[in-house]
Amino acid sequence: MRIAQVSLIPLRLELRQPLKTSHGVHAVREGFLVRVVDEEGREGLGEAMPLPAFGTESLEDCGVTLNAWLSELKGQFLGDSVRAIEDTLSPFPPAVARGDGVRIRARQVTPAGAMPAAEHALELALLDLLAQRQGVPLCWLLAEEARTEVAVNALLGADTPEALAEEARQAVAEGFGTLKLKVAGRPLDADEARVKAVRDAVGPDVKLRLDANGGWSEPDAKRALDRLGWYGLELVEQPTPPEDLAALWRVQRRAPCTVAADESLASPDALRALLTVDPLLGGGPAVGAVVLKPMVLGGLLPCLVVAMRAARLGMQAYVTSSMDGVVARAGAAHLAAALPSGALASGLAVGRLLAKEPEGHPYHPQRGIIRLSSTPGLGLSSQSLV
Ligand SMILES: O=C(O)CCC(=O)c1ccccc1C(=O)O
Ligand SMILES: [Mg+2]
């Protein structure tokens, strides 16, 4: 394929209501839409929505980098294969990557210079274009046996028990079977009242997951899970700080539910330790699940590799957005469809938290499920989005 045209379009997403996590408050998300167009006028779309609190590059570095990569790519030929896209982004010299096309050295070997959000955007745009050229939905490039449905969780953004209960009832009435609630950063009594309010509001059959965003110390996490476990938890994301995998492992050993590593995956050392058999962590899986954030891990293909390696060690994997726009969530939905297991719902229902979500795109969940169509690529066009 020849990349005939490229463009970079700034994107600004305002949240309906600021989202409070133990990292701080998110009120607005800023990033870029990437467009690559082939000679026949097909348009591939990608999105960069950096989240520096999760270890990505800054908005400014992301923009400068994408501009440079796109101008390098313009007019170039790439092979029509996932391999050629990998080679284009590969940090390795041609003899290692065996490339047949252009190479822009996106994926850095050294984490210090990594640009995961920019890598994500370019990879997604090229995958979207390739899938369209092959006439297949994007997930088929990732796995032949990709699922057509992806279950998603509702993220409850309210703060008080009363408001949470109302939000939870509404989400269940909309058909969501899994609810997610941010905890930590407040007294345990307050979190217990919030979790209890949600459980009382929705009854025992709805899955309830918590996300502490690393905000508990190890003793805090043990105390919290001893108490909150009584309300029936599906899992808890990142109970303890990201770098201390041994603490995470110890928390998992006595937790009443699955512990999912999320922020830990943004640290290259912690990720390496998670994905290798470490005798210090008992020689088995460190935790029950890993959370894949394509924006943080630098694209769908790196996420797929992490999922495969996690599965080999006995860890589940699921995908979440990082409060992204439609294009990134679409890519993440295709990744979720291609994972080894779809047992855990994906965190891709965040459109309901955004102030101006575009209408009429096919990635709105219906009754807690995103259904993937057989439209080639992502099935989105930039005209309908900006
Ligand atoms: O999982 C979801 O439903 C939404 C994703 C989410 O919670 C999130 C959004 C922005 C930044 C971090 C996180 C997180 O999972 O920790
Ligand atoms: Mg999380």
Automatic annotation (TrEMBL):
Question: Could you say which cofactors this protein requires?
Answer: a divalent metal cation
The beginning of the lineage is: Bacteria, Pseudomonadati, Myxococcota, Myxococcia, Myxococcales
State the protein's name: o-succinylbenzoate synthase
Q: Which residues form the active site?
A: K182 (proton donor), K293 (proton acceptor)
Answer whether the UniProt record assigns the keyword Metal-binding to this protein: yes
Report the top EC class in one word: lyase
Please list the residues that bind Mg(2+): D211, E237, D262
Q: Please give the function described in this protein's UniProt entry.
A: Converts 2-succinyl-6-hydroxy-2,4-cyclohexadiene-1-carboxylate (SHCHC) to 2-succinylbenzoate (OSB).
Alphabetically list the UniProt keywords: Lyase, Magnesium, Menaquinone biosynthesis, Metal-binding
Q: Taxonomically, which superkingdom? A: Bacteria
User: A single Pfam family, by name?
Assistant: MR_MLE_C
Question: Reaction(s) catalyzed by this protein?
Answer: (1R,6R)-6-hydroxy-2-succinyl-cyclohexa-2,4-diene-1-carboxylate = 2-succinylbenzoate + H2O
Family membership noted in the UniProt record:
Belongs to the mandelate racemase/muconate lactonizing enzyme family. MenC type 1 subfamily.
Q: In which pathway does it act?
A: Quinol/quinone metabolism; 1,4-dihydroxy-2-naphthoate biosynthesis; 1,4-dihydroxy-2-naphthoate from chorismate: step 4/7; Quinol/quinone metabolism; menaquinone biosynthesis
Per its UniProt record, what InterPro entries does this chain match? Enolase-like_C_sf (IPR036849), Enolase-like_N (IPR029017), Enolase_C-like (IPR029065), Mandel_Rmase/mucon_lact_enz_CS (IPR018110), Mandelate_racemase_C (IPR013342), OSB_synthase_MenC1 (IPR010196), OSBS_N (IPR041338)
Give the record's GO biological process terms. amino acid catabolic process; menaquinone biosynthetic process
Instruction: Please provide, alphabetically and separated by semicolons, the GO molecular function terms listed in this UniProt record.
Output: magnesium ion binding; O-succinylbenzoate synthase activity
Q: Tell me where in this chain the Mandelate racemase/muconate lactonizing enzyme C-terminal domain is found.
A: 161-258
The EC designation for this entry is: 4.2.1.113
